[in-house]
Amino acid sequence: MRKYISLKNKIEKTALVKVEPFKQQIRKTNPHKHNNYFEIIYLSEGTGFHTIDQSVFSIITPTVFFIRKEQVHFWDITSKPKGFVVLLKKEFLQASLDYKLRDLLSQLSHITCLKINEPQNIDALFQLLVSEKDFTVTEGLLKALLAKIIARSTPFSTSVNKSDTITLFQDFLKQTDNLHNSVAYYAQRLQISPQKLNAICRKTHQQSASEILGEHIIDEAKRQLLYSDNSVSEIAYNLNFSDSSYFIKYFKRYMGITPKAFREI
């Protein structure tokens, strides 16, 4: 029987950020999403595997995982883990006036896993964050932590600084419960022409707006096919396709197989 995606909420309703040690009793978990927060997981000890969407990562410590709210993930840990977890709501950034902190988070928000080469002081910063309650101090500690993670991790290529338009476009696409297969729909929400949105996407990501949109739609379709009992017709409806036959053709164009065949793999 196919498992449903559970929705976990590990942060209080009124809290904007939460930092705590990684629970050492965690070994195996079922596929789940997070309830409206970005999660940063640092492991200094532990072995096993971490699956995020369709990617399986071997846990080679020290390492950091970044999990967006729309992603499905689960653990298969084979030895005692040690580390820390940061839960960060969007409202935290909205309340923050530290633009450097926002920039650091923007750099990391589209990365899934980083190998830490020099972990010195990273544990200490996490430990300070666990007990800190002052918002301003938390901002400073979090900024220092993210800067050290970037500086001491395996090199990765950073994308061109995103304009407000491309950032807002991607924010809309993260609202996976209301995806629309229409560049014109998002251009209208951004109050620009589809041609302008396409030009911005090509300049920033070397992809057309429809290609970026298509990746989000296909990722969400795969999540629902893998982790829900929704029929193909129901998934097509959830993704705002006019009919299931169009959705099937769309999915096959990207994946080379039908949704039903993908589910049965």
From TrEMBL:
Pfam families: AraC_binding, HTH_18. Keywords: DNA-binding, Transcription, Transcription regulation. SMART domains: HTH_ARAC. One of its GO terms (molecular function) is DNA-binding transcription factor activity. InterPro entries: AraC-bd (IPR003313), Homeodomain-like_sf (IPR009057), HTH-like (IPR037923), HTH_AraC (IPR018060), RmlC-like_jellyroll (IPR014710), Tscrpt_reg_AraC-type_HTH (IPR020449). Residues 163-265 form the HTH araC/xylS-type domain. Transmembrane segments: none annotated. This is DNA-binding protein.
